[in-house]
Specification:
2 domains; 8 helices; 7 strands; alpha/beta
Length: about 260
């Protein structure tokens, strides 16, 4: 997918790896200068260096997305480096991978940690960036949620609650900011195959694990998605041509949430 983002400056949180890295690369390849804001500084620098070597304007900045002071410092540094901000992609997020439990046994520390990054982080970064978009009378915000924010999953109460919050925070922001020319939308990925999730999908012999095969059976297209497929959805939402899309939740899940996909 090719769009014209020349002269635009984008911030991608959590852009050092996985979906965030694919989003950063897609924006850069379409002409945007990309600021990667990530707590994992080495990964952020590696991504920024790779984009720079390919001839794209990119730089890495370190911040905990839920730390307002650190985020303000990073946003100020982005403006100093690139002169403006036009696009914000709130991608940074975490989840509990092991020891998932029902709500009455759910670990409070895990709850606080996930809500802090996945929901509060979106709020904090948006608070720091949106005033600059309003000053310019225009811009785009794309929040990365999850199908888990639309169709709740078992044993992941914190992640489900956080991503549902992101979905409705997106809609609220769209109502508030749309009249000023700042469009806010959301992408809800389904099961995405990243470097971090490969071990969850594939067994030692390279075939789907039993758990992954059960999951894939619910997905009409019969496979997990790729980070690049999420990046293309983000590109659509930030494209100049998507100027009448505001408050949308774009589900990219291979049909997972379209309906029940098993024979009775």
């Amino acid at each position: 997918m090719q769009i014209d983002l020349k002269g635009r400056v984008a911030i991608v949180t959590g852009g050092g790896q996985g979906i965030g890295r694919a989003i950063a690369a897609a924006l850069a390849c379409n002409g945007a200068a990309v600021a990667i804001v990530d707590l994992a500084v080495d990964a952020a620098r590696e991504t920024a260096d790779e984009l720079s070597r390919a001839g794209h304007a990119s730089a890495a900045f370190t911040a905990d997305v839920a730390d307002a002071a650190a985020v303000k410092s990073a946003v100020d540094a982005v403006v100093t480096r690139f002169g403006r901000i036009d696009i914000l992609v709130n991608n940074a997020g975490i989840n509990t991978v092991k020891d998932r439990r029902p709500v009455h046994e759910y670990d409070r520390d895990d709850w606080d940690r996930i809500l802090r990054v996945d929901l509060t982080g979106v709020f904090v970064v948006s608070q720091a960036v949106v005033p600059r978009l309003l000053e310019q009378r225009g811009g785009r915000v794309v929040n990365i949620a999850s199908v888990a924010g639309l169709v709740p999953l078992r044993l992941q109460s914190a992640f489900v609650a956080a991503k549902a919050g992101v979905v409705n925070l997106t809609r609220s922001m769209a109502l508030e900011l749309g009249p000023s020319g700042v469009l806010v939308n959301c992408v809800a990925p389904g099961s995405i195959l990243t470097q971090g999730t490969q071990a969850l999908f594939y067994g030692p012999d390279g075939s789907y694990s039993e758990r992954a095969a059960s999951l894939i059976a619910h997905i009409p297209v019969g496979r997990p998605g790729t980070p690049e497929e999420i990046a293309h959805a983000v590109l659509f939402l930030v494209a100049p041509e998507a100027s009448y899309v505001n408050g949308a939740v774009l589900t990219v899940d291979g049909g997972w949430t379209a309906g029940y996909n098993r024979d009775w």
